[in-house]
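Milestone M4 deliverable, item 7.
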Amino acid sequence: MKKGKILLIIFIVIVLAFVGFRVLYTNNGEEKPYEIVKVGKGTIVEEAIAIGEITPKNDIQVKSKISGIVKEKFVEVGDFVSKGDIMVKIIPDPTPRELTEAKRDLEMKEVAYENAKAKFDREKKLLKKQLISPEKFEQTRLDFLQKKVSYQLTEDRLSLIKYGNAGSKNEKIESVVRAPISGTILEKFVDIGDPVVPLTSYQPGTPLFTIARMDSLIFRGAVDEIDIGKMEIGKTAEIQIGALPSKNIIGQVIRISPKARKENNSTVFDVEIKITNRKDVELRAGYSANAKIIINKAEDVLFIPERLITFRNDSTFVELEDTTTGKINEIPIEIGLSDGINAEVKSGVKQGDFIVERPPKEIE
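Output delivered:
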């Protein structure tokens, strides 16, 4: 019986000791109202963000030099065309006045040509009989040739107005629009039956298509003025495509605008980034994208979260816990590169040190 009581007492003591240990452990935990963050090693990258889109380096608007109505269309958006390929055929659509004036002009030029030809033939015979001087005949010959060319031009003009073509078989002029460059058609502005205003020195003309080379796409975007001073031509950039979130491509800064502009009440600078590595990503003109431009990079360095750093005057400090005594000391440190989240530590701590992270203060 005594032996049983002794065992019971021992059991109770063990239980009380265990409970006391848990209470003490809990109390000790409550006496440390902070977290511990170890000093680590890794890579810190300082970046500038550019917001923009993927766009052709150069795109060309195709326009017509002749007026009329679209009769045939040989290409569509997305088609690849080679330089010189026919894109549309335009039939003339002259006004009654234009047609009448062209006919009357041709009649007048024909009369002038026939008169010049008759005079040329007559003086050619007189020259053989030496009844006129060679100089006078030469003037008549030149006048005849000028009247002949003028008549032919007027005839071609009337043919273009009426039928949409002119000239001989070897030098045939057709009312068609051909591709000025090789590339992909990005936009179409006309369909069959649409009127076309020609491109002249006094009017812009009707745009028909937009063509661009898809192998020379670039990123165009804007960078905030805060970061522009750190950027240089030739810096590497990682471009993230909005429509392809899991695929990034690599580029290189090729242009930084020397002049700022306003965008949504912010001051920004335009930049261009040449795509140097597509990584087998199929790109399309107009994709929205963000470019992370690498300004500086530090590899295999000590770093801590920037939120743990105290900035006072021109110095920086962290709170360090002594692993032996548990005492917390504020020590000065020297920081280097920062990516906005983590900061490089050049001196003051070593890898594995425990940095104190205080809980955020409650707003009263």
